[in-house]
Amino acid sequence: MSYQVIQVSGTILNKIESFYKEHKIDKLPAGAVFVAKSPTCNITAYKSGKVLFQGKGADEEANIWKGFGATAAPSKSSKKATTVSSSGNKVKSSLPAGFASLSVIGSDEVGTGDYFGPITVCAAYVKKEQMAMLKELGVQDSKALNDEKIVRIAKAILPHVPYSLLVLHNEKYNELQQSGMSQGKIKALLHNKALQHVLDKIAPEKPDAILIDQFAESGIYYRHVAQQKNIVRENVYFHTKAEGLHLSVAAASIIARYSFLKEMDKLSELAGITIPKGAGSKVDAAAARVIEKHGESFLNKVAKVHFVNTLKAKKLVR
Ligand code: MN
């Protein structure tokens, strides 16, 4: 049986207590302040600020609170907890058996490495009954699809799949970035929001699981979203290359890429030149042309200005 012990402050302890309040039981061992039995694990909180999670969901539940600043408990139990957690993480990153045929909400983002254009994040719900149809429509790992196919497949699947698509335009992105927010946090907030939107759309139906194409370790992800009113955490899995693990992530990725392409077309029109993807030398040259045509401040509307491409473009202009 998997278990984890974390050490928390009084404030977090109160948060944890109210979080699990529906699952609290009356029988307390010595030194305990509360005990809760959630569907996936038992939680025992002690006056010392130690909280013990036991059961198959122990790693996942404990990780949530690490996101709020809880640490692995010190003292002799810490060694044990670390060992359990590292082996537990392995278990966690491997998905439940038969995952590909469950009904899942998947999420993915596009545009984070592109100098020009927005970040688009999509969460999409694919039920097991829809999989044959989506495969028929060509849904597969979007990296294997060219732009033309992306557009065609996206248009075909949009009417069939409950989804949420968020577009973070460059001006807003630059503002957040300049206020000190990391790209990781920006992405986490967008994923959390998109997932919540889809959960709201399909309610009272619930997915069997949620799969996020992993861009951060789960503890870091939950730290990023810790201040949000709604935090999507039930049955959430993180996995790299998730597009190949469930069609919902593949569908989300296709929709996000379709949206990104449309936005890039709009930017090309706005700038009066063809705006390239990526962050290579073609992009530097295009950014230099944008500066020549419209002035440097125009980049704020069409590009992620903190990328080194801005400096390279300015050199090209000189
Ligand atoms: Mn991804």
Question: What is the SS-derived class?
Answer: alpha+beta
Helical content band = 40-55%
Radius of gyration: 22 Å
- Taking the alpha carbons of the first and last residues, their distance comes to 64 Å
* Shape summary: globular
Count of strand segments:
11
Number of helices: 12
- Mean pLDDT score: 90
Beta-strand fraction estimate: 15-25%
Q: What are the bound molecules?
A: manganese (II) ion
Instruction: Spell the H/E element sequence.
Output: EHEEEEHEHEEHHEHHEHEHHHH
Order of strands across the biggest sheet?
A: 2-3-4-5-1-6
Enumerate the spans where pLDDT stays under 50 for 5 or more consecutive residues: 75-92
Largest sheet report: 6 strands, antiparallel
Catalytic activity: Endonucleolytic cleavage to 5'-phosphomonoester
Domain RNase H type-2: 102-318
Main location: cytoplasm
Function: Endonuclease that specifically degrades the RNA of RNA-DNA hybrids.
